[in-house]
């Protein structure tokens, strides 16, 4: 199969859309390849030409979400005052709130391991790139940048999963401010 073929792009788009529609309706563990095929109006065997399994399809379908979270997290200044969260962090939590059922299902106990790993790795890579460009707090001296980036990425994902898993207590701004206080109090500022 030629992945650059317009038909392959169209098929993958149908499959991603079908998966996301189903994910908005029920937990990821309840979705089957057969259901995705029916929803996309594509032969079940065709799915396996594009994805080895449902987890790979889930990770691909959530690619835009991963890119959005990574972009917004990457915009956060790491040296902003601890009193209130930087706007990109508030925007990140607003995005999560707008798509809460999908993130709750994807990052919850019955979610996609591939998605969670991909999101953590891309967040860590974005942070590491910023650290390499000199945007690293001085209090982190002596800590390998890779470890620091992994720590922040894991902490942010943990907070997001807890926040959406607990039913969105507080507003997006409240969650961003609480997260920033944690990061500014220890993870970022030391």
Radius of gyration: 18 Å
Low-confidence stretches are: none
- Helix % is over 70%
Major β-sheet, in short? none
Approximate shape: globular
Chain-averaged pLDDT? 84
Number of strands: 0
Strand fraction: under 5%
Class of secondary structure makeup: mainly alpha
Order of helices and strands: HHHHHHHHHH
The helix count comes to 10
Distance between the ends: 51 Å
Could you name the key traits of this structure?
globular; mainly alpha; single chain; 190 residues
Notes on the structure:
By secondary structure, the protein is mostly helical. Helix 6 (87-98) crosses helix 10 (172-187). The protein has helices at 6-25, 33-40, 44-50, 54-61, 63-75, 87-98, 100-107, 113-132, 145-165, 172-187. The chain is built from 10 helices and no strands. It is 70% helix and 0% strand.
């Amino acid at each position: 199969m030629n992945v650059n073929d317009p038909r392959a792009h169209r098929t993958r788009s149908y499959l991603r859309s079908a998966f996301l529609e189903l994910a908005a309706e029920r937990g990821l563990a309840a979705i089957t390849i057969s259901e995705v095929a029916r929803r996309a109006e594509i032969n079940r065997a065709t799915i396996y030409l594009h994805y080895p399994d449902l987890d790979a399809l889930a990770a691909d379908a959530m690619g835009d979400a991963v890119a959005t979270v990574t972009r917004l997290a990457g915009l956060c200044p790491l040296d902003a005052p601890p009193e209130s969260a930087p706007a990109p962090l508030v925007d990140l939590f607003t995005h999560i709130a707008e798509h809460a059922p999908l993130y709750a299902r994807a990052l919850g106990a019955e979610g996609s391991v591939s998605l969670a790993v991909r999101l953590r790795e891309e967040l860590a890579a974005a942070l590491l790139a910023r650290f390499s460009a000199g945007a690293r707090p001085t209090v982190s001296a002596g800590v390998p940048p890779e470890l620091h980036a992994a720590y922040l990425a894991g902490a942010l994902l943990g907070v997001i999963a807890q926040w959406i898993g607990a039913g969105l207590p507080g507003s997006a701004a409240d969650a961003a401010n609480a997260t920033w206080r944690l990061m500014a109090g220890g993870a970022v500022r030391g």
